[in-house]
UniProtKB/TrEMBL annotation:
This is RND efflux pump membrane fusion protein barrel-sandwich domain-containing protein. GO terms for cellular component: cell envelope; membrane. The keyword Coiled coil applies. Keywords: Coiled coil. Residues 217-267 form the CzcB-like C-terminal circularly permuted SH3-like domain. It comes from marine sediment metagenome. It is found in: Cell envelope. InterPro entries: Beta-barrel_YknX (IPR058636), CzcB_C (IPR058649), RND_pump_MFP (IPR006143), UPF0194_transport (IPR050465). Its main location: other.
Length: 280
């Protein structure tokens, strides 16, 4: 038996085992497994040579130590492979980020998904407790919009249902369609109830400011310019031009800050019919 050759085989196996352990620490299980197979082959070769001489005992001790280390390394590799398998198994389970109702499923059982498939959703999940309304705001009004503003929602299918909401998203980038610039806006409904369904059509009136107990006048009665507005007032059967100071407007009626009193009658210029002022 070649004693130097036997020790050389053991030392080579020990070096390979050390390198395999380093690869294992780096997570390179395939490379570590390949070196471990070389270690096993070297140990088998050394074991055969160590069984025919009187100096077999020290060789056997050295061999046993290496075999123990080899077994520990093989166990570590198996543990790492098991951990990887558990991670991959976890990827097979789809976990929703919130409680809700599955409205639609876009994949079929047994279907193989590619990297391109991840661009599309697998499931359409709805949270019935929080419904969002997607809409657009004209560029003329976008500067008046702020996050948190209240909104009254009018549903086409449920016109008598009162639904409140708040502005929760305002896009910073506009979209041009037919030459008109608009901005995507999202309103989160505060009291959706069970009657609302995903995809319903609705209109939102966003409250940009609120004044109560004010004097209102129809916009049709206002003449002149915004800087110098005036109205025609019927007083003692005489028509009088009266300058007024205006406040908030909803596009139909406008707040009058000064120039008119509640109960006075104004005249629409196109019809010349008097309209009695009222508070609101």
């Amino acid at each position: 038996t070649d004693l130097p050759g036997t020790w050389l085989a053991l030392e080579e196996a020990q070096d390979n085992l050390k390198e395999a352990q380093e690869l294992l620490e780096q997570g390179k299980t395939e490379e570590a497994q390949a070196l471990l197979e070389l270690v096993e082959a070297g140990l088998t070769k050394a074991q055969r040579k160590s069984q025919s001489r009187t100096w077999a005992l020290p060789l056997s001790v050295k061999l046993a130590e290496l075999q123990t280390d080899q077994a520990k390394t093989a166990l570590d590799i198996a543990k790492l492979e098991l951990a990887k398998a558990r991670v991959e198994l976890g990827k097979a389970t789809i976990t929703a980020s919130f409680d809700g109702i599955v409205a639609d499923i876009y994949i079929n059982e047994g279907q193989q998904l590619s990297s391109m498939s991840y661009a599309n959703p697998a499931i359409h999940l709805i949270d019935p407790s929080e419904i969002k309304m997607n809409g657009v705001i004209d560029e003329m009004d976008i500067s008046k919009l702020k996050l948190g503003q209240e909104a009254d929602i009018i549903l086409d299918a449920l016109p008598d249902k009162e639904v409140k909401g708040r502005v929760t998203f305002i896009s910073q980038a506009g979209t041009v369609q037919a030459g008109v610039v608009s901005y995507k806006t999202i309103i989160t409904l505060e009291n959706p109830g069970e009657q609302l369904r995903d995809g319903m059509s609705a209109t939102a009136e966003i409250i940009i400011d609120r004044h109560e107990n004010v004097l209102l006048i129809p916009n049709r009665a206002i003449q002149g310019s915004w800087d110098s507005p005036w109205v025609e007032v019927l007083a003692d059967e005489q028509v009088e031009q009266r300058p007024v100071e205006l406040g908030l407007s909803d596009g139909i009626k406008t707040e009058v800050l000064s120039g008119l009193e509640e109960g006075e009658s104004v005249i629409f210029p196109e019809s010349q019919l008097p309209f009695r002022m009222f508070g609101g």
